[in-house]
Amino acid sequence: MKSIVLLIISALICCVIYINCDSNKDEVICDAVFKSVGLYLKYPDGQPVILDSCKVFWVDENRFLENHFQEMIPLNGIYIIVDDGMRKELKDRQELMRFTGYLNGEIIYEKEVLVSADPCHVFNFETGTEMIVQVISGIPDIVRDSKFCEYVNVEQIRNIIPSINYFVSSIDENLSYEIKLQMMVDWLLSHSCITDARIDYIEGFPNDSRITFSFVENGQTVDMIMISSVNPFSVGLIWWK
Question: 3-state SS of the chain?
Answer without folding.
Answer: CHHHHHHHHHHHHHHHHHHHHHHHHCCCCCCCCCCEEEEEEECCCCCECCCCEEEEEECCCCEECCCHHHHCCCCCCEEEEEEHHHHHHHECCCEEEEEEEEECCEEEEEEEEEEEECCCCEEECCCECCCEEEECCCCCHHHHHHHHHCCCCCCCHHHHHHHHHHHHHCCCCCCCHHHHHHHHHHHHHCCCCEEEEEEEECCCCCCEEEEEEEEEECCEEEEEEEEEEECCEEEEEEEEC
